[in-house]
Amino acid sequence: xxxxxxxxxxxxxxxxxxxxxxxxxxxxxxxxxxxxxxxxxxxxxxxxxxxxxxxxxxxxxxxxxxxxxxxxxxxxxxxxxxxxxxxxxxxxxxxxxxxxxxxxxxxxxxxxxxxxxxxxxxxxxxxxxxxxxxxxxxxxxxxxxxxxxxxxxxxxxxxxxxxxxxxxxxxxxxxxxxxxxxxxxxxxxxxxxxxxxxxxxxxxxxxxxxxxxxxxxxxxxxxxxxxxxxxxxxxxxxxxxxxxxxxxxxxxxxxxxxxxxxxxxxxxxxxxxxxxxxxxxxxxxxxxxxxxxxxxxxxxxxxxxxxxxxxxxxxxxxxxxxxxxxxxxxxxxxxxxxxxxxxxxxxxxxxxxxxxxxxxxxxxxx
Length: 366
Description:
Shape: globular
């Protein structure tokens, strides 16, 4: 069958997950830059520098892929748009349907899509529907694919992301001497930072020395979320207690995880939930929302709170802060859960998808 993996360059979350998988799969890899294709641009007009650059990149990518033998496996679901244009079988990994959901959402999870976005998101959905096999990164994403895109359940396999346990582990190095709650992620509306900030106002009344540390950039190419976050922080009187440290190196990220009272992730939607997994591997207790795949990934190692339950978030964080025994139990449960994820296991699951597809093709030709 001769599959090969199509991964993306860059340091984004999905980019790095594809790169980790590529290191462990026994198949060739084709690396592409998402910003040189239409798949790397959202929130732009059809007639713009980004759109024109993307169209040129699309032609070059399609030419390169058509020149190769074998079945491509797109490790990034935004590249599913190219699959039908290759006129050969292909595989795609779907991380979430968040952009697809924004086509009909009254309150966007990221941004209200432009006319150009709508055309490309629809093309991606059609590409996923026409894929010979689909890899979902969680049972939640698999269920979304079956319900929202009407995929045949037999064509959708779940392969969880892995984790680099040599990197994500408990460390003694500390970047702050004060107790802090940690948030890791973008400032997309789906991350629900407004709820977290309001919960933190309640916490500060009881824990005046507690700080909130936010790690991560605003978001993708169309992100304009930083100004809104700054206004919330100022309006709620939290300017002196919120540390927005932005993008950090891997070693600093591990140190932030290892030193936190807990990681909090009040998201409205997640297709997987990498920060809680990384935090658990570093011995950090986690408090997550009931939305998306977060309960599935945490699997009982930490409490799950309704996304908009401000008092519930404040109470859950306070309980972790006040109860050393609870923190210890959550730490041990998190370490056990994180140990179940590895990139070697992810690679083995991906190979099984290839093998099953090969068997189906042999059966159909016989």
